[in-house]
UniProtKB/TrEMBL annotation:
<feature type="transmembrane region" description="Helical">
    <location>
        <begin position="30"/>
        <end position="52"/>
    </location>
</feature>
<dbReference type="GO" id="GO:0046933">
    <property type="term" value="F:proton-transporting ATP synthase activity, rotational mechanism"/>
</dbReference>
<comment type="similarity">
    <text>Belongs to the ATPase B chain family.</text>
</comment>
<comment type="function">
    <text>F(1)F(0) ATP synthase produces ATP from ADP in the presence of a proton or sodium gradient. F-type ATPases consist of two structural domains, F(1) containing the extramembraneous catalytic core and F(0) containing the membrane proton channel, linked together by a central stalk and a peripheral stalk. During catalysis, ATP synthesis in the catalytic domain of F(1) is coupled via a rotary mechanism of the central stalk subunits to proton translocation.</text>
</comment>
<keyword id="KW-0375">Hydrogen ion transport</keyword>
<keyword id="KW-0472">Membrane</keyword>
<keyword id="KW-1133">Transmembrane helix</keyword>
<keyword id="KW-0793">Thylakoid</keyword>
<dbReference type="GO" id="GO:0031676">
    <property type="term" value="C:plasma membrane-derived thylakoid membrane"/>
</dbReference>
<keyword id="KW-0406">Ion transport</keyword>
<dbReference type="GO" id="GO:0012505">
    <property type="term" value="C:endomembrane system"/>
</dbReference>
<keyword id="KW-0066">ATP synthesis</keyword>
<dbReference type="InterPro" id="IPR028987">
    <property type="entry name" value="ATP_synth_B-like_membr_sf"/>
</dbReference>
<dbReference type="InterPro" id="IPR005864">
    <property type="entry name" value="ATP_synth_F0_bsu_bac"/>
</dbReference>
<dbReference type="Pfam" id="PF00430">
    <property type="entry name" value="ATP-synt_B"/>
</dbReference>
<keyword id="KW-0813">Transport</keyword>
<dbReference type="GO" id="GO:0045259">
    <property type="term" value="C:proton-transporting ATP synthase complex"/>
</dbReference>
Length: 177
């Protein structure tokens, strides 16, 4: 800018016949501003264009990276949702299998319980029958013992020595002949 100002003042001075400075601020500033604007436009448009193109390329690259990350995230989400669905399916299968196994175990336990009840009933009946037979045998022994005791008492009253000798003689006679 200073060179431009210097060049303009030199050209103006040569026209007047010498070297000098142009102190007309409005005239020199306007020309300097136009030259400066032209230089900036000529060189600046390339630089600004390059900067804007680089920025545009970086933004496009970032957008591409973000879109790629979004696509990968969507794929990962789909895979995880599929895994979740499989896990839910597996969990429901495990639950249904567990319920079926529990039902089978319940039935087996009930059947075993019924068998045990029947076995206990059979043992109780057998014990009752053996107790009843033992009680009956004991009663028979007592009755027999009482009957024998009574018969002995009655025989002792009815049988005296003479009746006993007659009874013995008759028995010997039957046996002997």
């Amino acid at each position: 800018m200073i060179e431009t100002l210097f060049f303009l003042t030199e050209a103006h001075s040569e026209a007047e016949g010498g070297f000098g400075l142009n102190f007309d601020i409005l005239e020199s500033n306007l020309i300097n501003l136009l030259i400066l604007a032209g230089v900036l436009f000529y060189y600046g448009s390339k630089i600004v264009g390059n900067i804007l193109n680089e920025r545009k390329n970086k933004i496009a690259q970032k957008i591409g990276e973000v879109e790629e990350k979004q696509r990968k995230a969507a794929q990962a989400l789909a895979q995880e949702q599929e895994k979740l669905a499989q896990a839910k399916s597996t969990a429901s299968k495990i639950i249904s299998d567990a319920e079926a196994n529990a039902q089978k175990a319940k039935q087996a336990i009930l059947a075993q319980g019924e068998k045990e009840v029947e076995r206990i009933k059979a043992m109780a009946v057998a014990d009752l029958n053996s107790e009843q037979e033992r009680a009956i045998a004991e009663l028979k022994q007592r009755i027999t013992a009482l009957a024998l005791g009574r018969v002995e008492n009655q025989l002792g009253e009815f049988l005296n020595d003479e009746t006993q000798h007659q009874l013995i003689d008759r028995s010997i006679a039957r046996l002997g002949g």
